[in-house]
Model the fold of this input.
Amino acid sequence: MSGSTLVSTEELSSDPAELRVFDCRFDLAKPDWGEAEYRKAHIPGAVFAHLDRDLSAPKTGKNGRHPLPDPDVFAQWLSSKGLNKSDRVICYDAGSGAMAARLWWLLRWMGHEDVAVLDGGFAKWTKEGRPVTSDVPSYPATSYPSEYDENRTVSYRSIQRNLNGTFLLDARSPARWRGEQEPIDPEAGRIPGAKNRFNMDNLNADGTFKDPSALREELLKATFKRDPREIIHYCGSGVAACHNLLAMEVAGLPGGKLYAGSWSEWIADPSRPREKG
Done:
């Protein structure tokens, strides 16, 4: 098993190598749901990663709904879970991969290249009758380094300084992108000039990712064939955008950047411009 994008349920079941598995199930409307489900049943050996508590920094009211964790704090959490920089990591969630992609991106941000998302997630795993357990594993603590790649992110300040010269790709649904509805944040709309690629369009009907060639064609169209390194990805709070970043890598289009604060941070300052329609 190799690569740093996706792994199949068959590969995860059959590979004899020592793996570290993280369960990232989460529901924005019910923040305790994922951990409760994990305690009922999860893939053997998996530890739980909570989006709000483990994969985000505390909210201030101005830094978005899921601000990036402090690298030192995140490294301490990885250390407490017994992770080594050399470990092969598999992340999964309930199915779509959006929550798992957040941890995938964070680990890549920290320089951990050997990490992949389980294609189809826990839904596919259980549908196929693969083993689950309620046993919560324990791993000896390690000392995970708190290095990170600042070039993988951009700030709202950077976007504001060059708004007309920045290519933004919004991962939210088309209705949210157009500003017709906003079920989560207090204001509807988008960052001016942003194009749309709904992250759920990366998937087949069964919740697995589309074929790389199909993804490549669709993503090149959505980005007007821009150099992937020039694309800044955002969404509501920096989670679904990671799904698009993962899809870009699956399609052979790596190098995009994340605006982690996303729409929820952008609208915290009334002076920042908005757009609808």
